[in-house]
Design goal:
Elements (H helix, E strand, L loop, with lengths): L5 E2 L2 H4 L13 H20 L4 E7 L2 E7 L3 E3 L2 E3 L5 E3 L11
Parallel strand pairs: 1-3
Antiparallel strand pairs: 2-3, 4-5, 5-6
């Protein structure tokens, strides 16, 4: 994996093949991720704020700054039905 995540667009995200499996190691980390996704979904739907999503795909790290519309069944849904599995997530709000 690369040391720094590669910044990509939401539409580029749709073209990736995602790695399988969980990247977090503890239940506490997974709980923190779930809470961050819930907060980011609120920010996306009610406040139309963007967040940074950090994830692993094709043995590399990527980051996309976008709004999250829905989190359901282990996937994060972005605009235009772009989906990202919940592999790794950061809740940093992005400047618009």
């Amino acid at each position: 994996m690369t040391a720094l995540p590669k910044d990509i667009s939401r539409l580029q995200t749709a073209l990736l093949c995602f790695d399988k499996g969980e990247v977090l190691h503890t239940l506490d980390e997974m709980s923190q991720r779930a809470e961050a996704i819930h907060k980011a979904t609120y920010l996306g739907n009610l406040k139309h704020k963007k967040v940074s999503i950090l994830f692993s795909a094709q043995s590399e790290l990527f980051v996309v700054n976008t709004t999250i519309w829905l989190h359901y069944n282990g996937e994060i849904f972005l605009k235009d039905d772009v989906r990202v599995p919940c592999l790794l997530y950061t809740s940093d709000a992005a400047d618009e």
